[in-house]
UniProtKB/TrEMBL annotation:
<comment type="similarity">
    <text>Belongs to the class-II fumarase/aspartase family.</text>
</comment>
<keyword id="KW-0413">Isomerase</keyword>
<dbReference type="InterPro" id="IPR019468">
    <property type="entry name" value="AdenyloSucc_lyase_C"/>
</dbReference>
<protein>
    <submittedName>
        <fullName>3-carboxy-cis,cis-muconate cycloisomerase</fullName>
        <ecNumber>5.5.1.2</ecNumber>
    </submittedName>
</protein>
<dbReference type="InterPro" id="IPR000362">
    <property type="entry name" value="Fumarate_lyase_fam"/>
</dbReference>
<dbReference type="InterPro" id="IPR008948">
    <property type="entry name" value="L-Aspartase-like"/>
</dbReference>
<dbReference type="GO" id="GO:0047472">
    <property type="term" value="F:3-carboxy-cis,cis-muconate cycloisomerase activity"/>
</dbReference>
<dbReference type="Pfam" id="PF00206">
    <property type="entry name" value="Lyase_1"/>
</dbReference>
<feature type="domain" description="Adenylosuccinate lyase C-terminal">
    <location>
        <begin position="363"/>
        <end position="436"/>
    </location>
</feature>
<dbReference type="InterPro" id="IPR022761">
    <property type="entry name" value="Fumarate_lyase_N"/>
</dbReference>
Amino acid sequence: MAASLFDSQLYASLFSAGDISRLFSDSAEIRAMLLVEGALAKAQGKLGLIPEDSAAAIGRAVMEVALDPGALTQAAGQNGVPVPGLVSALRDEMNAPEHAQYVHWGATSQDIMDSALMLRLRQALAAVETDLLILLTQLSDMADTHANLPMAARTYGQLATPTSFGAVVATWGQPLAALLEELPTLRQTCLLVSLSGAAGTSSALGPKASELRAELAAGLSLVNPHRSWHTDRSPVLRIADWLTRACTSLSKLGTDCLALRQSGIDELTTITAGASSTMPQKQNPVAASALIALASQATAQLSALHHAAAHQHQRDGASWFGEWLSLPQIVFCAASAARTAVSMTKGLAPDAKQMLRNLHAANGTIYAEALSFALAEQMRRGDAQTAVKDLCAKAAQEGVPLQEVATAQFPELDQATIFDATRQLGSAPEEAQRFVRTVAALKGRKEST
């Protein structure tokens, strides 16, 4: 088994992070750091901090050179960061000492690496957002179609009251829609440029340090934080938290689909089931299981990321290294979960006949709450509940529907309303339609930006 399943050819289709996996490759990190170095030189040249011809030469070089990650291995191991080796290699490749001396002018390794990280996290967020929008469209269509399809709601794993499949779908999608509504603010407050120098004081960046940071932010289309955030990892934590919450919401989808396809319930059908090596009858809910596993992994890695967030003094290698170990895994989990959910829900459909059979299971006692409130109109609420408990016990003992024993004892009740699932849905259809409207509004705002 590969050290990371996200890098495995064997498990590539089970835990696929798509193009995001390439964002956290060595080559992608080097390319992002070079882009930052080039943007820094351009900003410094514009402000007259380094010669403009040197800035132009550096800008050309970062676009043209191809640095081999293997050539930076020894330097990265010795220095704890790849930037010194990268800067040295870039200067050598430029073959123009008069210009190369201005590479990395006044910056520190963390400025380059954190800014490069944000460039890649920006792409990762965009990719996850795209998949979640596709998923929400699929779920919205499903909720709209089945807003009034009755099924059994379950609490503590037991039959509770009737709901609709559309409302259940809405519970899968609403948290995801809320997450996408958070994204503009997240981007504006967390996708930050970093430029504060060796100890966060910008001392080597000169009197135009603040102006330079703003120029670099504009050049990279990142946000200017107006401060140093070398040891404040809250921007990274908030992005990781958003990705983990996406995993958790998708895990709810997986958990419910796993349960609703369980033998004896069988209320969902899918075209993405897996086969057993020895049991021909099996149709294993592989995708649903993957969603649950991915959320578990992301949550564990987020905990580790929080542990690594408290940096000592103005720079802390140990804590920073811990971030490197955990953050990519969280990104991969979210990307893989979103892609998996899109694929799984394409072939997902309710089995209306089985849902109806399950509504009638357990002697129809799913209507006990409705019956107790109907009786409460003619007796005390406590007495009504006691009476219905007795009726449920009698139905179970005699193996007959609750409606039958209730009719015998209380013939004056409106049995057609009490024991009709379509008339006991409460707000379920509206919950489904509210979700449909939420997704439509979300897509409308996205299209207008």
